[in-house]
Structures are given as structure tokens and as C-alpha cells.
Design a protein that fits this description.
- The chain is an all-alpha fold.
- It has one domain (about 1-120): Tetratricopeptide repeat domain (Serine Threonine Protein Phosphatase 5, Tetratricopeptide repeat), CATH 1.25.40.
- The protein has helices at about 1-5, 10-25, 30-45, 50-70, 70-85, 90-105, 110-120, 135-155.
- Helix 2 (about 10-25) packs antiparallel against helix 3 (about 30-45), helix 3 runs antiparallel to helix 4 (about 50-70) and helix 4 packs antiparallel against helix 5 (about 70-85).
- The radius of gyration is 17 Å and the shape is globular.
- The chain starts with a helix and ends with a helix.
């Protein structure tokens, strides 16, 4: 749900969705999913350009991921922290934490560069001369969001 809302630039509702997921996981006693929700919330702050909050939350998520044994999200925290540091022109800090991330991904048998490329990125519009109308481009995420919202409402 939150990913759809991010695609629609509805960050307040995306944050609310992640926070709701976190509360549900916390009540259900699922610390791994709580840590992943914390990571997603931290990443959302990064996307919003709120770097101070993103750094604080990424460090907290990193501790939680390490405690739960979630090596993948633990490494992603390093990757995202390096991106935040680059945005803030803290190149030495970015280099250090990026290297830690590289080592974490390498330990999992994943190449750091492949991981960086495989992250969700905005789709290229207009490639090969094609043009996309905004309404057509966003129709699918809106439909998915509507289905997810109705499922959440039915589960409540």
C-alpha cells in the first residue's frame, strides 16, 4: 500500500501506512517485520529530504535489523546512510558506510553494485520515443491502492 502511495507522491498517507503496519507487527510479536517497517519509515524520510530524521531512523533500524538477524535490511541501512551522507556532502562518512554496506552484501553473496541498481527507481518515461499520459501511468497504482485499502478495511 505504502509503495503505491509513494508512487502517487502521497507521503503523509504512505507514512501512516508504514506506521500502521509497524503497530500491527509489534502487537503480533513479529520483531523482524517491525524492524523492516522501521527501515521503510526511515527510507521514506530520506525520500522526503528530511535527512536528519532519516539518519536517526536508519541507525535505529540498523540496530533493530542486526538484533533480529535481518542481514539484507541491515545492509540496506548502510546503503541508504551512504546516500544520505552523499546528499549532505559528507563524502568520507559516505565512503566508510558504503564500504561497510559492500562488505555486508558481499557476505550475503550479493554484489553491492547490483543491489544498488535493483532498488526501485522511477520508471523512465519517454524512452524509445514513447510518451505516457500521467493519468494512464498512475491508473494501475491507484487501482492497487484502492484494492489494498478495501482489504485493510475488511480486516479491521
Amino acid at each position: 500500500m505504502a509503495v503505491c502511495l509513494i508512487s502517487l507522491n502521497d507521503f503523509p498517507r504512505a507514512l501512516s501506512s508504514y506506521q500502521q503496519a509497524r503497530r500491527v507487527c509489534e502487537r503480533a510479536g513479529m520483531p523482524l517485520l517491525v524492524a523492516q517497517a522501521d527501515y521503510n519509515i526511515a527510507y521514506l524520510y530520506y525520500l522526503r529530504g528530511e535527512y536528519g530524521s532519516a539518519i536517526e531512523r536508519l541507525y535505529a533500524a540498523r540496530r533493530a535489523c542486526e538484533a533480529t538477524g535481518d542481514a539484507y535490511h541491515f545492509a540496506l541501512c548502510h546503503l541508504d546512510l551512504s546516500d544520505v551522507y552523499l546528499e549532505l556532502n559528507l563524502s568520507e562518512e559516505a565512503r566508510t558506510i558504503a564500504h561497510e554496506g559492500f562488505l555486508r552484501f558481499e557476505a550475503q553473496g550479493m554484489r553491492y553494485e547490483r543491489q544498488r541498481r535493483s532498488r526501485t527507481r522511477p520508471p523512465r518515461t519517454g524512452s524509445r520515443g514513447k510518451r505516457f499520459k500521467r493519468s494512464n501511468f498512475l491508473r494501475k497504482p491507484r487501482n492497487v491502492c484502492a484494492r489494498v485499502e478495501s482489504c485493510l478495511a475488511a480486516a479491521s
